[in-house]
Amino acid sequence: MNLKKLFLLAGAIAVAFSVTPLAANAQVNSNAPQRVSQARPTPPDLKLSQQQISKINQIRSNTRTQIQNVLTDKQRLQIKTDLEKGKKPQEVFGSINFNQQQQNQLRRIIVTSQKEMEDVLNDKQKKILEQWRKSQIPQAPNN
């Protein structure tokens, strides 16, 4: 099994499973206190409309439901327990032993939901998001 792909899949699942969209959340509640210790950079302000926020939240809700349906009862309990203990979502999902069928289903769910969310964005928002993603790719050191 390719460990790097599994780690990336675990991270994507963790984000889809446990986090509200940061950009949408920032639009709705921009006066809320921000956590200083956020592990990942905040995406750019895409200036989402209320309609876009609603659609993205619905997609994320559907994604969480689909992911829950792929997990076994034991996996769901382990995830719930570990998250309640304060473990990071990526760490929690990285510790779950998904079988090959689950990996394939989860990968398909994540890819589909990302595409659906991107389809909600207009061309300008897509361009901003793409530029931000490119800026997040670690650069190899010049040796």
Task: Give a description of the structure.
The chain has helices spanning 3-18, 22-28, 50-70, 73-84, 89-94, 100-120, 123-136. With 143 residues, the protein is mostly helical. It has one domain (3-23, 46-135). Helix 1 crosses helix 3 (50-70) and helix 1 (3-18) packs across helix 6 (100-120). The longest helix is centred in the middle third of the chain and has 21 residues, at 50-70. Mean pLDDT is 77; it is low at 17-39. Helices cover 68% and strands 0% of the residues. The chain is globular, with a radius of gyration of 16 Å. The protein contains seven helices and no strands.
What's the short story on this structure?
This protein is mainly α and 143 residues long. It has seven helices and no strands.
